[in-house]
Amino acid sequence: MDIAKNTQVTSKSKIxxxxxxxxxxxxxxxxxVMGPFLFGLWTSFLPTNxxxxxxxSGSLTIDNYVxxxxxxxxxxxxxxxxxxxxxxxxGEVFFCSLAAYAFVFLKFKGRNVIFYLFLxxxxxxxxxxxxPNFMTVKSMxxxxxxxxxxxxxxxSAFGTFMLRQAFLQMPKDLKEESDIEGLSHFQYYWHVxxxxxxxxxxxxxxxxxxxxWNEYLWPTLTTFSDKYRTVQAGLRQMQSTETFNNxxxxxxxxxxxxxxxxxxxxxxxxxxxxxxxxxxxx
Length: 282
Hints:
This protein has 282 residues and is mainly alpha-helical.
């Protein structure tokens, strides 16, 4: 009995030490990841004079947020980002789902070869495509418009691959029964395939929206005025302005810009967990 008790105590102590190390490591990693955001959030409430002196203490105020909204075009940047991100998300989900449906449910010669060629484009980094894409949109007179930030991203190999895998998991009986009922391909796609894969669609939509919202290089290269600049390019432009040295206002603008991404991440995480639970039940 004593030996058994000693064994249990030793086992519990090992588990406790292991748990402490795991949670300690997770807390350290969380602080490393959250550190810059928390630092920016704190300084956004400090007076600019305190920040200029290198002090991180002082009376907290929302003046920086009021000044950012009244004196900078940050709201215009937010509107532009919303327009571009929503259009890109709708386009990418729609066209990727159509392509994925074709690769799964339509039978044509060379289907697998075309799909693998499609996937091969994922190996090419975006930076390698910038110059030819820029020359293409320039020849089409799309520079400094919403179109230049939407049209090149209406579909993607990643989204097609992701939805193809979701469609492949659908029971084959559904397609056979729909053929017997006389449903066309578009009716099956719209009424059966999309509802069945709604969690994957929502995950892709969240990913597409966040990718568009956080994109910096392409909007910086293709937009030249505040009328069309998105938040990432706009913040960089504000920071690089020689007369704009109000760091409290810059931090407040950055926090305003981050809020929509946090909301989307929260919603996307909820759907992602729901998808995992549904999959475990099925």
